[in-house]
Amino acid sequence: MKPLRIVTFVSAALLLTGAILAQDEYDDFGPKPTGGEKTKKKYEADLADHKGNDDILVLPGLVANRNERRVEVVAESTGLRGGELAEFLLIDQGSSHGYEALLWSFAKPSDVHRALEFIGLKPGTPFNPNALRFWADGARVKLSVDDDTGKPFPIERFILDNNSENTLPEEGFVFSGSVMVDPRDGTSGARYAADVYDPRSVASVYNEPTAVLDVPRRVSQGEVYGSLVVNPDCAFEAGKLLTIVMEPADPDGQTRTRHLTLSISNAVDSVAVGSSRIDTNSTPDGETYHLRDSNGKAVCEDVSLSAVFASLKAMREEGLEPYAELSFGEGLTIDQLRKVCAVVAVLEMAETLRVKEPPAGQPYYRAFVPDTKWRTPEERPSQPWELHLSQAGGKILGRFILNDPVWGDDSLEPTFKQTVLEACAPPDLRGRLDAAEQKRLKNGKTAAPAVLFVFADRDLTYGKLMDCIGPLLKTHGTLHVFVEE
Fold this sequence. Notes:
globular
């Protein structure tokens, strides 16, 4: 079970972001399960049957067998009919989302987590956009539905995708584990989020930060909402009790994840990724790519991009999932970073590589491939501070600009009033920005968004950039870096 970690960096692809865990105010909304008494009697019978057997774990609503590496969870059909929208496969019986879920679980999400660990599966880390973690990792788990016919079937067959007219890919689920959160009622002790916060999901059809089991793909809630429905061939009547069987999806039960470090200090050739071609010949000196495993050992001796790509591609062909932490050399220029990060973005979109959250104190790599239309105030959804960095005589100076929208009585588009802070050296940037924000608040204005748009010379190095913006990122974590034109 992983602690919830909030970091100061936010996705460069998002100007305003936040996956907020909020306790549902409508706990009594929607249908409720009815099989509680039967499940309670089964639990008591299971306790008696397996008393003294250390290889069997019996918890309310589930039985886990360590030798067989199998967890059986008692579930009840919510009664969703064929063609109705479904966002959740299995939710806790206390969830208020029964109206959009297939099954209620009579086992608490935290108990499911405990049972999976009991049979030898290791949780990973959950999807968490606030922490810039856009891929869940962990052991792969196969979920099957046993309806007492003796022919269990994959739970993915419950869901039909109206766009493809196919059921979900039968790839299993990622045991990422939910997060631990502080209670809101003033009591002490962290709580398992899926136990206490809606949707209280054990397994969803999209990337859900608090779910025990995540889909092994990058799927946002908005992306699939309206297209995923109950398969008419697998719909059960409301109140039917079923057994959800959870087993390792891989023969050895180990995670498919490979944790790597990709250090880039200088791309010297070009490679094709799917239908996209990455051209890296345009850098005069060429960047080097060092791919290392979790023990620091080189995955390939060749430091060219093509060699690194070949290594990653080979891992994917073996069914492995490479997750890499990126590290940038201080000597890389902004122009090089822009090109390098565009390469990484293509690799990630092709799922050749899954980029991990950045180390503390470093920006997310997509900060260097911002939406170009945000260069001008007219195209932005909000107006953050701009920081313009210039180099002269071996010195770096920074100048802040804020564009406040001014709306005319009959105008559909605003004009902008600029606040310009005179240029100063990097050590003074933090104080200058703080003073400007305090002045705004004193004058009754709202604080500018906690976002920073940086405009820098193309030959400014990463090391010098971080000297300038490092102290600012504590409060202005969302970063977008543009080459000054």
